[in-house]
Specification:
alpha+beta, two-stranded antiparallel sheet, 14 strands, globular
């Protein structure tokens, strides 16, 4: 059973609220590897996909393979935590790393793709197209992602996380921010499940609206009658995978931001990964 580290004195009277807001997550430690085809969670290399899968393309050309989650490997480290995650299978993420669409336009769904293999043992490596190799965008030098079970806390102002902190002073807010960072490593974390580290606003509402066909690049997408009808459904969305910018991976999302792969709980349980939504945030 994971336990929170000792709380600073300024947060002691908020202990019950903080402890009730803790959510399990899976955190990753990255290291270099040489074999680009081996199973397991990793960034880069050759994606493991169902046999006969064609390399995903966008209207601009072949998408770039970002990385994969091996849920059999994750099951071994998470125990009974995060019960909605599969206990087997490989999920490969492809994304246009050059144009880096933000995810506030329904048309952005053409610029990323998830490829799901229900049984890990049936996933086979797929070599990248020559176009990516010649452009130096095949990411053939993979990074192994070693998972470990961790804990996460919501942003202090995240209403969905139950940590409304309007009564906090500066010391309490600062100490809570340090506590969050101690748990997951900060906003550039590489994480499955748990509370996201939003760089900007809570992206769950955007995912709810854009996935229903509303353009959210300006306020009109949020102010329409249809948006108001859809807004309650934002609470059904959860973080599946956060991929932060950092020097080790070589990923830089926008101005050193993060990618957020979000999915509704019912779609995750049904393995409907085609219903997920990808967004990018940066400062």
């Amino acid at each position: 059973m994971l336990e929170l580290p000792p709380l600073p004195p300024s947060l002691d009277r908020w202990r019950e609220r903080i402890e009730s807001a803790v959510a399990p997550c899976i955190l990753f430690t990255a290291r270099d590897m040489e074999d680009s085809d081996i199973p397991g969670c990793r960034y880069g290399g050759h994606p493991l996909v169902p046999e006969g899968t064609a390399w995903p393309h966008s209207p601009s050309g072949p998408l770039h393979f970002v990385g994969q989650l091996d849920f059999a490997e994750l099951a071994a480290c998470r125990g009974e935590a995060l019960p909605d995650l599969p206990r087997d299978g490989v999920l490969a993420l492809f994304y246009d790393v050059q144009e880096q669409h933000w995810g506030y336009d329904p048309k952005d769904s053409a610029f990323w793709k998830l490829v799901w293999t229900p049984r890990s043992e049936e996933a086979v490596p797929l070599a990248p197209p020559a176009e990516l190799v010649d452009a130096g965008l095949a990411f053939d030098l993979p990074l192994r992602l070693t998972p470990r079970l961790g804990m996460s806390l919501p942003d202090a102002w995240d209403r969905a996380g139950g940590m409304i902190a309007q009564d906090w002073g500066e010391a309490e807010a600062d100490d809570y921010a340090v506590l969050r960072e101690r748990l997951t490593g900060g906003e550039h974390t590489h994480q499955v499940g748990g509370h996201p580290w939003w760089v900007q606003n809570d992206a769950r509402l955007e995912a709810q609206l854009v996935s229903h066909g509303l353009y959210c690049g300006d306020s009109r997408g949020y102010d329409s009658p249809q948006a108001r009808r859809l807004m309650p459904g934002a609470s059904e969305w959860n973080l599946l995978w956060q991929i932060g910018s950092d020097d080790q991976t070589g990923f830089t999302w926008g101005d050193y931001g993060s990618l957020y792969l979000l999915i509704r709980a019912q779609d995750l349980r049904a393995r409907r990964f085609d219903k997920a939504w990808l967004g990018l945030q940066c400062r």
